[in-house]
Amino acid sequence: MTKYLLISALFTFSLISNAAGPRWDNSIDINAPDLTVSAAAEQCHKSLINAPEYLEEWCEKAYEMGYWKALVTLSLHNGDGTRLLEEAKKRVAAKEPKAYSTLAWLYGSGMFVEQDINYAISLYKEFLALDAELPNPLVAAARFKLANLYKSQQNWLAVNEHAKYVIDHSPLAYDKERAVDLLELAKKEILIKNKSLNKN
């Protein structure tokens, strides 16, 4: 199962890498004094598919410069999520909004940890309850993930609630389309359950 998840994650990152621009830029000097965090982060992500021989040095460089999500790429590359898990936990403990989705992804998918759907759900709920101004795209993304996690538990009322939110608020057409599918499925399952209860 973990091997399948790792392959899926690698495929997703390959799409991100190819969509981000040129396949690889050999002209960027890792030791250049004017190297930006964004440039280092981009080289880190692109190297996963396009230049794996340079991945560790670029991702370590990006991490040193403050881009902690470089640990995601490093973990996918070497199959060890220890540093990523520790970093995500530390940042969630500090209430850093963007860290919640990473930690929830790890537990929700079972990537590098034992899968724990309930904990993943609790992380997204804690994120939504943060006393902070949360960007709408992050909120909509969390709601979309919640709808899918609740689907795995067959909690159709919760799927219905979060799918509706995504349809009304997500800026992403793909998420909206998937949310419509989730909403239709939830309504169907709720109807079946109600009919069954009425017969009894």
TrEMBL record:
Residues 1-19 form the signal peptide. Keywords: Signal. It comes from Pseudoalteromonas aliena SW19. The lineage of its organism: Bacteria, Pseudomonadati, Pseudomonadota, Gammaproteobacteria, Alteromonadales. InterPro entries: TPR-like_helical_dom_sf. This is Sel1 repeat family protein.
